[in-house]
Prior knowledge:
The chain is mostly helical. It has 3 helices and no strands.
Amino acid sequence: MLVTMAAVWLIGSQTPARRHIGFWVFLASNALWIAVGLHAHAWTLIILQLCLTAMNLRGAKKADEASG
């Protein structure tokens, strides 16, 4: 949860580099949540995190394109 909150804070930054890092931190948090879901057999959580991973990859790509 702390990794997710750090990612939210970074994404909200006005600095493009911090926003870019925020997407990668979000990806790390997705991996951590998937690990929790596997341990708890929480399949819905795993599916949610896979969907959010796809959105975060899209956001990271757009951040790369915007920073040139």
